TrEMBL record:
Cofactor: pyridoxal 5'-phosphate
Designated name of the protein: KamA family protein
Alphabetized GO MF terms: 4 iron, 4 sulfur cluster binding; catalytic activity; metal ion binding
Domain of life: Bacteria
Gene source species: Streptomonospora nanhaiensis
Swiss-Prot/TrEMBL keywords: 4Fe-4S, Iron, Iron-sulfur, Metal-binding, Pyridoxal phosphate, S-adenosyl-L-methionine
Record flagged with keyword Metal-binding: yes
Length: 453
């Protein structure tokens, strides 16, 4: 791998990272042309849901002439109508009156509790244990082959997406956060569970960590013989590509990636791109080239989000651009049932049409992508199509992944519902009384029922 820097850096390439938080919202939303009442409503939403953006996104990605309708602006800035009007008015009244921070936060916590902060039963169903006794913090083991690990220094991001399903990680409530600094616990668990062949480092964003800290989590995994792949889930390529080009430890980070590949393990860089504009800067393309030169494979994924990327042309452009730059389109997700889902969700029927409209206009190299996929309590469910069977219009579905491995790849049918936006909005079809996952293993049945009453 060549670690020499390309010429002609981006205007922001050499600048140090600068974060903007809620205290900057009034100034930034004024730049977008919002009036005083609108700005107060946005601040009220930001008291409930997290807000963070950085100088690169502000300077390089947002078209301020198009704001507040610009898709990248909407990607990172709270919207006044993301929460119920009564909730926004309640918080806005407190802010207007100069209420103490504790009072505002108590009201915000009441609202957060109604937003399903931990979807898919992650607090109850997916927490692994050592010797079936002691729960392991900051880890999830939902699928047979894969363990998720949340390094505690990686539980923030370079910027926050307004639709993030892990928003609860970022609101300052320790009871809502997954995190662990105990990589030795992870290694011990992997050795006790040789069926686990893949570890996903997630967050937050692991790439917020410097190389020295990231290495402390990655290096011990290289000695686990049964581990075949290490994945890093990250939005850093879109939100701070300097991490791989001009940051002081950029070269050291890429050498770490090389060590993973040289150890005989696959390094899967799970890059989150929500809109084609995130790939436009040459700085991003240079970062992609440098990562690929280490032997890492970059796979791309994002949810389908109303008002940001909810049309087939956007996804077609995004997938074709990723293939052009040597990345592998991997997932189109459905917005999860948490946070402001009602604001961002696209009905499943429309999601499928958007997916199909993009899929049939790209080459086979981009048809590695799967979707629209729902990461729900029983597993990852893909909408494969709409069909008429025995006179009944149905969604054709299958499990890409499942808590019960016997369900993986198994097709099933749901009644067609043009308004349904999530798995639990659906009803069984063709005379079935239950869905396949509702035949849960005995030890899981009560928990699954509780997770989606």
């Amino acid at each position: 791998m060549s670690l020499t820097h390309d010429a002609t850096p981006s205007p922001s390439a050499g600048r140090r990272f600068r974060a903007y938080t809620a205290k900057h919202l009034d100034e930034l939303t004024a730049r977008a042309g919002l009036g005083e009442a609108e700005r107060l409503a946005v601040r009220a939403v930001a008291a409930v849901l997290p807000f963070r953006v950085n100088s690169y996104v502000i300077e390089e990605l947002i078209d301020w002439d198009a704001a507040p309708d610009d898709p990248i602006y909407r990607l990172v800035f709270p919207q006044a109508d993301m929460l119920p009007q009564t909730d926004v008015a309640r918080i806005a009244d407190l802010l207007r009156a100069g209420a103490p921070a504790g009072e505002v936060n108590r009201a915000a916590n009441e609202i957060r509790a109604r937003l399903n902060p931990h979807p898919a039963g992650q607090m109850d169903l997916n927490v692994p244990t050592i010797d079936r006794r002691d729960p392991l913090e900051g880890m999830q083991h939902k699928y047979h082959e894969t363990v998720l690990f949340f390094p505690k220094q990686g539980q923030t991001c370079h910027a926050y997406c307004t639709y993030c399903f892990r928003w609860a990680q970022f609101v300052g409530d320790a009871d809502l956060k997954f995190a662990s600094g105990e990589v030795d616990h992870l290694v011990a668990y992997l050795k006790e569970h040789p069926e686990v062949t893949s570890v996903l480092l997630t967050g937050g964003d692991p790439m917020i960590m410097g190389e020295a800290v990231l290495s402390r989590y990655v290096e011990p995994l290289l000695g686990v013989d049964t581990l075949e792949s290490i994945r890093i889930g990250t939005k850093s390529l879109a939100y701070w590509p300097q991490r791989f080009t001009t940051d002081p430890d950029a070269d050291d980070t890429l050498r770490l990636f090389e060590r993973v590949v040289d150890s005989g393990k696959n390094l899967a860089f799970m890059a989150h791109f929500s809109h084609p504009r995130e790939m436009a800067p040459e700085l991003v393309q240079r970062a992609v080239r440098r990562i690929r030169a280490t032997g890492a494979v970059i796979r791309t994924q994002a949810p389908l989000i109303r008002t940001i990327n909810d049309d087939a042309a956007t996804w077609e452009t995004m997938w074709r651009t990723h293939v052009r730059h040597g990345m592998v389109p991997y997932y189109m997700f459905v917005e999860r049932d948490t946070g402001p889902q009602d604001y961002f969700a696209v009905p499943l029927a429309r999601a499928y049409e958007i997916y199909r409209g993009a899929y049939n206009r790209v080459s086979g190299l981009a048809r590695t992508v799967r979707g629209p996929s729902m990461s729900a309590t029983p597993g990852k469910v893909c909408i494969d199509g709409v069909a008429e069977i025995a006179g009944e219009k149905v969604f054709v579905c299958h499990f890409i992944q499942a808590r019960d491995p016997e369900l993986v790849g198994r097709p099933f049918f749901a009644r067609y519902d043009e308004k349904a936006a999530w798995l639990f909005d659906l009803e069984p079809a063709l005379g079935a009384e239950r869905f396949p996952w509702e035949q849960a293993p005995p030890e899981d049945a009560a928990l699954l029922d509780a997770a989606h009453p």
